[in-house]
Amino acid sequence: MHPTLAGDLSRFPELLQSARDFAAREVAGLAERPVAAAGPAPARAPLPEDGAGGDAAIARFAERWAPGFSGSAGPRYLGFVTGGATPASVAGDWLTSAFDQNLSGAGGSWAADLERETVAWLRELFGLGEAHSGAFVTGATASNTVGLAIGREWLGERLGVDVSHAGAAALGPVDVLSGSPHSSVPKAMSVLGIGRDRLRRVPLLPGNREAVDVAALEAELARLEGRPAIVVANAGTVNTVDFDDLRAIAALKDRYDFWLHVDAAFGGFAALCPEYATLVDGLDAADSVCVDLHKWLNVPYDAAVQFTRRRDLQVKVFHNASPYLGLPAGEPDFLHLTPENSRRLRALPAWFSLVAYGRAGHREIVERNVALARRLGAGIDALPGLRLLAPVRLNVVCFTLAEDPTEDRIDALARAVAGSGEAYVTPTVYGGVAGLRAAFSNWRTSEADTERVLGVLAAASS
After folding, report:
1. Which CATH class is domain 102-344?
2. What is the pLDDT of residues 92-109, one digit of tens each?
3. Residue of 7, 12, 137, 346 with fewest CB within 10 Å of its CB?
4. 29-86+358-462 maps to which CATH number?
5. pTM metric for this prediction
């Protein structure tokens, strides 16, 4: 064994303690550190030849790189839809690395059963029935890709084509219908050989909505004259957290032949709260569902879950035929369910957070974030330099400059907010107007944080 490696092994507990102490200092100062990094990154260093040991690696990281990491785990990072990491989920994530389980197969470990237990808990959390099975993946993009891949195989089943063997080209043109699809949907269509150009955008409801017009969707399905299709419904759009009428869309399956995939990346968490649960009424009727967990569940990146009613087709798409991996009989190993063979135990941080805080704890995070988003929205509405682009429906505030909201001026506003170190928001375009989004999904965010964000927005827009 290399002597430096042997030395680290001999004092492994002390090395972990050093990492723990450094992490604890960083987390303790997270609420006050600059939310976005300023200045250029350091020049690239040469590859070390012999290495300096674990303690030196921690010290070098602390000196060269840590100062430029964002405060994305903190309470005023409102860009994208970014959660933090609850204390219990961080503990679970550290133990995931310590145990370093290979989730490609059972492998003499109970780890796969822990993942199945966690998936079952999440299924219950989101109001899905036992007909839905699931697996952990890296994020919403992977989850949407898996759901559409199973839908593609279902199209083959309907058309008498074995897509997993014959390829997507054997299907001929595929129709994917959606009102306000997330950008990961056309990306998935590209990966799956369906093609980005096969996305058919369906008209939305009037009145500044991002929800699909179900009557228009029915008309589009009727034009297919019986040819099966894929419908991507949204449970929480990115700009305004609008929800398609899932129950009404599912009812169309009585008359039309389509696979219903629901992108509930963060909107699915509405199911936790009695006040908002009606927004996801009908989610259980979906053929496949995407939910992202490093958003509102507040577990470390990267973690999401996918659900489907057709595990048989999922295995058909993703099974790995090799003698050393075993056949996907009975309860299939997870390597037969997702694109990855090598799989980290992503379920463990989620398991820790669910055990530690339960349904009630995570419901409180959702309800508090929604209340704070509405508080920020009301504050923005009262500022002379800003205006809302849409009502605050759940946890995202979509807004713009009151006058002359050009892309350049919006970019300058975003840079000013980030440069203050107080907050971070991301740009968007809504209804043809350049604007900004503030997304509340962090478990730490408080009223005081919201007031600080409002203060920097007022100063930057005046």
Report:
1. alpha beta
2. 999 999 999 988 776 789
3. 12
4. 3.90.1150.170
5. 0.96
